[in-house]
């Protein structure tokens, strides 16, 4: 298969003398050559037979394993001498994979955190905070389901790759330029139920990423603690 599919010859077989308007720089040419080299190398790796795969290539091995797990049943033969045979399939491979995955995922593999301060002493409080943050992030990313799917994929396919990434996402903010626009927007929100529901659903999608950047987080935390103390005093009485 050739990446270039442009016909460079005329009908009589002569090479055309038309210069392309696109003239990339030497850096772009070098980068393009490296990309083509990487694609060629990856194609060779995927289609080279390996002894570890019973002398099958990576693609052939992967397709065969996926068919076994999905209990693939080949279509009926058109040959009358073979059409009478049964196409029944026993899902032995699938049942074994599910059994192994159930044993592996019985205990969820989760990273632990051990922190140290500037004096190389164990900092249990910092480790606890990081552990809570990682647990919260795993819940948001549905880590349990991802771990289960990755284990099954590793049992079926020759290899499985899992990665965690960080993305900075910007959301649209309504900007009011003047008082009339503000009044009009407020009236629309309070009078149009459909418009209000749309805004509400959009806010619910991004509400977990909201933050209050007014510099008063410490003050609000102290006030919250004071409220909890007063509430406990009312419920349990002051501890003299």
Shape, please?
extended
Computed CA radius of gyration, to the nearest angstrom: 31 Å
Strand content: under 5%
Spans where pLDDT lies below 50 across 5 or more residues: 1-5
Tell me what you see in this structure.
The structure is a single chain. The chain is mainly alpha-helical. It has a domain of 31 residues. The chain is 54% helix and 0% strand. The longest helix has 22 residues. It is extended and about 85 Å long. The termini are far apart.
Secondary structure layout:
Elements: H1 26-47, H2 58-69, H3 80-83, H4 92-104, H5 124-140, H6 143-156, H7 179-191, H8 193-206, H9 217-236
Helix pairs in contact: 4-6, 7-8
Characterize this entry briefly.
The chain has a domain at 172-202. It starts with 25 loop residues before the first helix and ends with a helix. It is built from nine helices and no strands.
Identify the notable features of this structure and list them briefly.
9 helices; extended; disordered N terminus; 240 residues; mainly alpha
